[in-house]
Structure formats: structure tokens, C-alpha cells
Amino acid sequence: MAQGIPDEVLMNTALIKDLADVAKDAALLQGVLMRAQETLVSYAPFTLFPTPVPKAVFLQALAVQTHYNTLVDRISQDSEFLQEALASTIEVDDFTARLFRIHQQILKEGRSQSIVLGLNRSDFMLDQKDGQAASLKQIEINTIAASFGGLSSQTPDLHRLVLKVAGRLEESRRILNNNPAAGLAGGIAKAWELYGSERAVIMFLVEENQRNIFDHRYVENELWKRNIRTIRRRFEDVSKTGTLDDNKNLFVDGQEVAVVYFRNGYMPQNYMSEQSWDTRLLMERSRAVKCPDISTHLAGTKKVQQVLARPGVLERFFPGQPQVVEQIRATFAGLYTLDMGPEGDTTVEMALAEPDKFVLKPQREGGGNNIYGSEICQVLEGMKDSTERMAYILMDKIHPRPVQNYLLRQDAPLKVSNCLSELGVFGAYVRQGKEMVMNECVGHLLRTKSSEHSDGGVAAGVAVLDNPLLI
Ligand SMILES: Nc1ncnc2c1ncn2[C@@H]1O[C@H](COP(=O)(O)OP(=O)(O)OP(=O)(O)O)[C@@H](O)[C@H]1O
Ligand SMILES: [Mg+2]
Question: Which amino acids does the record list as binding substrate (predicted)?
């Protein structure tokens, strides 16, 4: 008993304080459930059946992932390369320019943390031109907020059940196990352990409207299983209560943060005010492990992807490793610069002559930003002589073979659709100083959409969750 207060009251006071986050989450969940009837909650959309995927290309995608991890990590350490690769883009693209300024600032001040945690997802489609064998081509690599590791850990059981109900026991046994949530959490846990403070928490930096919260939850739960505390905060929350101590340790609401896991901050709209940008800088400056740090974020831009496809560039990152270079390069589609000059002019001519062969991409994430077909001509005609074009890259359009399936989503009638699929592969790595202490491929994601749509992911309401059935 302290000062006449019974111990059990003191204990409760401590618990209530410690569990403030739990209570907040419970209230949130309660609110969500109450509003469920108003359809504020809907199930994650999925295909009724798994989609056949050739085994050889599936294994090829898994096998190249650890090399992609290494590549992203090496790019992030090569400030000269990033500067050169992004020079034209940052002249005209405000968002990339702002990220780049933070990167420069951190380089000037010196990085305060030698632990690097990378969780990425490399996306592929199968190019299946008539009569030819399927060829695996990378669409892009997401180095920030790569999503659906949580939900795709749940979909194998879903399709197993559907197939059993449909009397297809043999196929149901062939649905692969998949648990990216555990693998991603494994990476976070490793970084947390190396950070070396048992009290410190993992902070999920989340959006204003948390539409994909359940995807995060599976990763959070994997961390709780390991007795690692997680909290969820928005830019605004960190802006209000985030501070750095003399050693640049990051504290939010008085709790030391070991790892900031960005599930937000990848598009301009995520930075709702100048304060959000200040907050990003605060976190970058801190001793917390950032996933991703600013240079790893920049390594995932589409401009970097295009520069990597130029002759000789991969060799810079894998000197004396021609097999690795070959393995990565085999997955590259044609990528073309739109910088000012003769090379960019050729790209413009090529795109205007056969727009259906290409995709025009700005430096954006989140789906729905790419330009296709006749719209490529409209957009390029308007900017072909202006530096504005440097904000884009041009890419060969990949043509997967359509497969029929039912797409189940809350707001759409059930009908058979011609569908195209995209395979994502999750990578997790941790580096401490010069030593890679973890480098793994931690699972996959298959997303499928109706072939009527050129663009758009699950969050954009176009693609749905799926599983590969290896053939
Ligand atoms: N070269 C291509 N050929 C065919 N389709 C493509 C190509 N590039 C992109 N797409 C389609 O457009 C979608 C979005 O493309 P991309 O991944 O480059 O953009 P994003 O905005 O970064 O998307 P995400 O939110 O998935 O990160 C892809 O999921 C794919 O369906
Ligand atoms: Mg992306």
C-alpha cells in the first residue's frame, strides 16, 4: 500500500495506463462493428477459385527475391547513383523532390542508425504472347508500405475450403502454404532485437482512414506473439507527441520507438500539411530503425527502375556476379527514358507510333496513375517538347493470358470474368552496418483483376486476392 492507496487500485491504474492503446483499439473496433451495417466495413475481395500459374516461373520469382533485396539495399547506400538517377525527375516532380531533399539532409547530418530493415514486394506479370512460353516480367518493386502480406496469409485456407466444397480434394491439397505476415514480422523482430531495448515499441505509421487495418493486424499479431509491443500512429499523432532525446532516440507518447514501419507516406496526399513533412524528417533523423529509410524509399521509384534497365547499371551493384545480374535482368521488361535529348525523343516517337504496346508511368504509387493506349498519345502530345515529360517513364506493356474466374466483392454482381493476374513476392532483409544479418523471401501474393481494367490494385477496388495453383 502506498500513501493509503490499496495495491490493487495502484495495479489497475498502471494497467489502464499501459493498456491505453488496447482500449483505444477496442473502442475503434466497437465503432467499426457498429457501423458495419452502414457498410463501412466490407470483406477483402477474392477470387472464387485459385488461378493456375506455371511452376517454373513461380519458382523463378521466389528465387530472384533475395537478389532484389540486395539490389534495393545497395542502391539505397549509393547516394551518387540515386542523385544521378533522379536528377531529371526531381526537376519536375515535386513529391520525389521533397523526398530527395530529406535524403540529402540526412546525408549531410549523417545517419544516426546503422540498422536497416527492408520489407518489399516485387510484382510480376507473365508475358504470354500467342504460342510463346510464359516469361516472368517485373512490373515494379514496392519498397514502402507493400501491402497484403497479412491478408494473403489467410487466403490459402479460403481456397482450400472452396475447393473441398466443390469436391476438388486433390486441388485443395495443392494450395501452397503462405505466411508473409510471419516473415515480415520476423524482419521487424530482428531489427527490434538489434535495436536492443526491450521496452521499445514498433510503431506502425498509418493512414488517416485506415481502410486496410486488418492486413496490418496479422503482422502486429505475429509481433505480439513474440512479446514485442506495437502501436499505431498517424503523422498527426507523431507530430503532436513525437520527440527526440539527446541521443536521437524517438519517443512517441512517452514510449521509445525501436522501429517505424511505414504503412503510409508513399503518396503526396498522405502528407496533409507541412507538419507531416516535418514529422517525416523527425523520424528519419531519429535513431529508430525506419522501414523503409528515406534512401530505400527512393530506391523503389519507377525512375530508378528504368535506370536499372540501362546496359551496365546492374553490373555496378553486382560486380563479379554475372549470374546474379543475368537472373535479375531476365525479369526486366523494356523500360525507356523520357529525359530531354535524343534518347527521350526516340521514346516519344515510339510511344506515339504504337501506344498499345506501352504503359506511361508517373512517379506515383497506390494504383490508378498509369496511362494506357490512346491516352498515352494525348498526354505525350501535350508535353513532348517540355521538361514535364521527365516526370514519367515508358514501359513495355505485358500481356498475360486471360483466365476465367469469379471475382467476389461486396458491391459487384457475381459473374464469370476474363481475368489477368499479378504475382507479388515479399522480401525481408536486415543489415547492421556492413553485415546482412537476414535476407529472405517470405511469401507471395497473387492478385487478379478483370481484363477490362488496365490498372489498379486491391485497394483501388480493381484487383482481388487470389492463390496460385501450380501447374
Ligand atoms: N508494364 C505493364 N504491363 C501491363 N500492366 C501493367 C504494367 N505496369 C503496370 N501495369 C498494371 O497497372 C497496375 C499498377 O501498376 P504499378 O504497380 O506500376 O503502379 P503503382 O501505382 O505503383 O501500383 P501499386 O499500388 O500496386 O504499387 C499493375 O498492378 C498492373 O495491373
Ligand atoms: Mg507501387
Answer: 121, 144-147, 210-212, 263-266, 447, 458-459
Residue 256: beta bridge partners? Answer: 251
Q: Is 398 in the pocket of ligand 1 (CB under 6 A)?
A: yes
DSSP for residue 37: G
Residue type, 1: M
User: Where do we find the cell 529472405?
Assistant: 440
Instruction: Domain 55-328+417-443: give its CATH code.
Output: 3.40.50.1760
CA of 463 to the centre of ligand 1 (A): 11
Residues 6+ apart with CB under 8 A from 275: 235, 236, 239
Ligand 1 and 366: CB distance under 6 A: yes
Can you name the residues that pair with 116 across neighbouring β-strands? 431
pTM of the model: 0.93
> What ranges do the domains of the chain cover?
55-328+417-443, 334-397
What CA–CA distances, in Å, run from 196 to 185, 190, 201, 228, 257? 17, 10, 11, 12, 11
pLDDT digits (tens, 9 = 90+) for 53-74: 999 999 999 999 999 999 999 9
Cell numbers for 164: 473441398
Architecture of the domain spanning 334-397: 2-Layer Sandwich (3.30)
